[in-house]
Sequence to fold (535 residues):
Amino acid sequence: MNGKDREQFREFMVSRWPELVRLGYALTGDRWLAEDLAQTALASACTAWWRVRRADDPDAYVRRILINASNRRFRRRRPAEEARPLPEAPLADPAVLAGQRSDLMAALRGLPPRQRAVIVLRYWGDLSDAQVAALLGCSEGTVRSQAWRALAKLRVSAALVDGESR
Amino acid sequence: MKLPEEAALRRRLHEEVDLAEISPAPVEAVFRRRRAAWARRLALISCGVAVIAAAVGVLAVRAPGRTPHAPTGPAGGGVFASGTANGRVWRLAAADLADAGYRCLPGVVVNGQNGDLLQRGFLPGLVLGGAAFWAPYPGRPAAGFAFVHLRPGVSRVTAHLGDGTRLLLRPVTLTVCGQRFRLAGFRYPRQGVTQITARSAQGRPLGYTPLADYFNPASPLQDGTWMNDQGAVGNVASGQIGSGSIGGAPWGMQVTLGPNGECFYSQAGASLCTTVGVPSKGASLTPIPFGVSGGAVIWIWYPGTVDARTTHLLAHLSNGTTRRMAPAVVGGRKYFVLAVAKGARPTRLTLYDTHRHVLADITSFPRVK
Fold:
């Protein structure tokens, strides 16, 4: 990597860092892990910078690396990282409203990686089904079916039920 | 789910995620990780080279008459997958991509050409092994070829193609360069590959989804080289293949052999990657035009490989000058590079062996795109 590439990559990284960390956080619910994933994705992009910078959509390329890294982590550590059980009753006390956000993240963590990625990209990333499909390397039909299944699971979770009543 | 519920989910996700506190971008840490990754890769390659050297040594002692470079195994000629596309037979085979008499360089070739390097070992977290895709005919019905270098124990490998076809692949274990590789290959249509599934040694289902861009003819990833996913361990070899000066301006060029194929880089910033060709009988040239900020071409480099017996080359240019060059060996392959200033072009390239016998006389050169 020569000086020009290095400067170009530095600019790219600084401008994309916040969004990548947020994507990692949405996928994992853990801010520190999110930073690690973002750093991993950008380190990979740095190694293959000549290829990334020539891609049609370098952002999509790096997001894809991050999602894959997140999925690999899920596969490796799944037995030790099952989501904690969701509360059986709705959270009615206003004093715990602050905790509802992490309930949403817990509910997301309970989803399989692909369903979680679809939900995050669709509802947080505001991407179309076609864009999500391209990013995940699957068909739009798969995106829709994964979203439907994920939403069905979230619908019964306390986190989302509470969200509606707020 | 009703629309209000989706809106609530969208709002709550934004509330939760967008408010997260973000640390400054750790630019230097990323550069450090990149350097560390390269160092690990180089260490791995060094270990691999040591193992290969030991294996070749053992083979030479046990079977003095046997060529350690020859691919051997249950499939004749190293072929691990074959078929017919558009009425033509295709074969994927493991082969030694180094020149005869040099260190062995294992790779995979399509119909004896357009190789991709094979490397031992897998990156952590890989489920199937290393997958590679090459699209010589993007957009056409039989668009490209793929192979998977499988992890031990992985079985029941199925390729799910974009046109809805499922191919149950038969992995073949081959020995090339004294190393054993389990390979499965197939041809894919223009709709690409949606997924490759398999079973682990413990019977667990495994899945790998390649990047959609691998199969998009408009993607810059389809630049004519193999696209190596998962198993891109690092460069196998690199070295300087020539240097000099034109009009008082110095230039230098190096070649790297690795997951991006055979890449030529000039100090001035021009670069080009291609598939790894089989050892040349004559010479194989790849023109690389180089311009400056205005875009006008000022130099053209012609790097390439030459017959392993070549000790020097003589180039005649259209402006009446001649250049004498000596080839350099990188990764067991003999390379040279001819630099030509704007306005001139090569008219003849002659290869000589150590006894000054002409090995090849080339008068036709690839056009500059």
In short: The CA atoms of residues 8 and 14 of chain B lie 10 Å apart. Residues 56-76 of chain B have pLDDT under 50 and may be disordered.
